[in-house]
Amino acid sequence: MYELKFDPDLCLACDSNACLVKCQHMDIDQETARTEILKLCDGESSFVLQDCVTCYACEEYCPNGNHPFYLIVQKQEEFNLLPLPDPLVKSGIQVGIPFRGEPEIQEITGTALNMGVFSQLASRVEGRLFENLTIMSGDSRKMFHYFCQLMYLHYGKTSVINERLDKIIQTIAAHKVKEVVHFHDECFGTYTSYAPAFGIEVPFKSIHLFEYLYNKLLELRDDIKPLGYKVAYQRPCSSRLSPDKHPFVAKIFDLIGVEAADREYVDENAMCCGATILGQKKEGSRKYCAEIQKKNIDDMKKAGAQICVFNCPACMQTLGMPVSKQGIMPLFLSDLCRLAIGENAA
Ligand code: SF4
Ligand code: SF4
Question: Which of 72, 82, 162, 207 is deepest in the core (most CB within 10 A)?
């Protein structure tokens, strides 16, 4: 049984209580924030467990690396205050079962590109940016062998992640791979944040897709034609688990000659895509989700964005269509990078 490394003494000594004070989805003053986080530390329940929309952001807000979001999710499960309705939790857990049949394991000598559960997006990783990577994926039946399971944080179920993750890590490691670039930001967060927080060993090095793209673009620098667009970036919730990789967005924008749209909901103040809120059982969730999405899209429009780039297929699925209806083109950031080196990534 894995145990979360969470230090209550850090909360006792904390003079910001930023985890809850900065929460965009609850209006919490500092005194209340301190009281509620200390209640959770003491094993008591808190209104936070019911009101949390699982946006992951407090993981980034905590200046002490103390994993407040993982603690919240763990307590949601302990007090049976799951964010989603029970039937959805039950069916969702079934969908992601990873070990039906045996995965096909082949030794990978160079760097691998882990597609996670998105094997159907293989056409998104073609061209010179990806030519030296070996794609690690299963077909439509076996892709769940590589499903990092972190989605179940939105279900209030760390137990499901902890039950399955070690074997998924062993499946990846069985390819004898030393370095893995993760196509989905959430996989990167799993292996570099969640696993260490729960003491789960990861025997391979993880590389963030943006760091990889930046370095690859540097190699191809002579082929880059500045694109000249104004671009909004829609941060995925899982990027809160690796905020040290966020600066690569600005560095890539510089390299490919695009201007970052001057958004209100940007960097630490980013607003999630709302996908997870839609199905939550709290009254008014559907309306709240619509409000969040409208805020994001209005913000992009106001900033004059011509393109909105994503790093998460779920965000793309949620916001892609509404964004394009407003005349803003939705693209994966990797596709925008391919355009900059003259490849048609449509
Ligand atoms: S989780 Fe982090 S920000 Fe929140 S009270 Fe504890 S140390 Fe402070
Ligand atoms: S995960 Fe998001 S909604 Fe939940 S407490 Fe943290 S910042 Fe607030």
Answer: 72
